[in-house]
Amino acid sequence: MTLSGTEVRYGMLATADPAAVNVSGSQSIGTGLSTLAYTDAPTVAYSLAMIIQDGDTLTWNTSTGAITGTVAGTAQVETATIVAASGATTAGDLNVTVTSALVTGSPLLIPVALLLADNTASLVATKVRAALNATTAITDHYTVGGTGATYSLTTKAVNHAANDTTLNLAHANGTCAGITTAATSTNTTAGVGTTRAYKFNGTAWSATDNEGIALPSMTKVHSMLIRSSNTAGTVAIDDGTDMFNPACPFVSLTASPTGAHPFTAGTVTFTADAAPVTLTIDVHAG
């Protein structure tokens, strides 16, 4: 890619109204929208995103753009089993309750209509799976599964969340009868949160530009914009000399007209604390 028009814009303003008696008018304080003029123009521009789980670290080589420390993560699986010797002995609703940190409205009560024809545990479980699949708040985050008398939820995000200790599937007779109450389910597979760098389209970061061409060897970093919209957690950003430890959410812009950014030609680590952190990063280099 051939770059042109590389620039950094910045500004920070506040309007002050005087408090003195018989004084009117307002005053602007700060710097209006301005543009940094590069004296040594960048030849490389790229953007990426990171998701970093609590306690995990990604290491970024600013000379190559390569990032190490990826943790693929594991989908969490929660399983419940229907116990009913004769299935539903009275037609009516079986109350299924889903508790999850991901589900809107959790704990979510889902009534499952049963008929006397649902006379085995497997037939009841089939009805439960269908009801869960028909609930958008569930399928936004989970794949519904199970066979025979079981029903299960499996997280389906590309970036897996850390294990949700609150995740639970429970069921009890509502207006139906014949189903044994189960207040807890089994954490069949513990979830492991994903830590990785990726392009804005979601594909794994591979140190390539927007055309998919490998980034060249870089000896300078000119500017870097780092943003996080998380409402919790902090991230320690460390280049081996200085550490920046902002609390989320935050925006950080650092720029050098000559390519003398402190992250030039080195490695930078990003370590999340207290909560998973998602970052978006824009870079001008050369």
Describe this protein's structure.
The chain is mainly beta and 286 residues long. The chain has two helices and 19 strands. The protein has helices at residues 121-133, 136-139, and strands at 8-16, 27-36, 44-52, 57-61, 67-68, 77-81, 92-99, 108-114, 142-145, 150-155, 168-173, 186-189, 196-198, 221-228, 234-238, 243-244, 250-255, 267-273, 277-285. Strands 13-3-19-14-17 form a five-stranded antiparallel beta sheet, with no helix packed on it. Strands 5-4-18-15-16 form a five-stranded antiparallel beta sheet, with no helix packed on it. The longest helix is centred in the middle third of the chain and has 13 residues, at 121-133.
Total helical segments? 2
Mean pLDDT: 94
Low-confidence region ranges:
none
Strands, count: 19
Overall form: elongated
List the helices and strands and how they pair.
Blueprint: E1 8-16, E2 27-36, E3 44-52, E4 57-61, E5 67-68, E6 77-81, E7 92-99, E8 108-114, H1 121-133, H2 136-139, E9 142-145, E10 150-155, E11 168-173, E12 186-189, E13 196-198, E14 221-228, E15 234-238, E16 243-244, E17 250-255, E18 267-273, E19 277-285
Antiparallel strand pairs: 1-2, 3-13, 3-19, 4-5, 4-18, 6-10, 6-12, 7-8, 7-11, 9-10, 14-17, 14-19, 15-16, 15-18
Salient structural properties:
five-stranded antiparallel sheet, 286 residues, elongated, mainly beta
Brief overview:
With 286 residues, this protein is mainly beta. The protein has helices at 121-133, 136-139, and strands at 8-16, 27-36, 44-52, 57-61, 67-68, 77-81, 92-99, 108-114, 142-145, 150-155, 168-173, 186-189, 196-198, 221-228, 234-238, 243-244, 250-255, 267-273, 277-285.
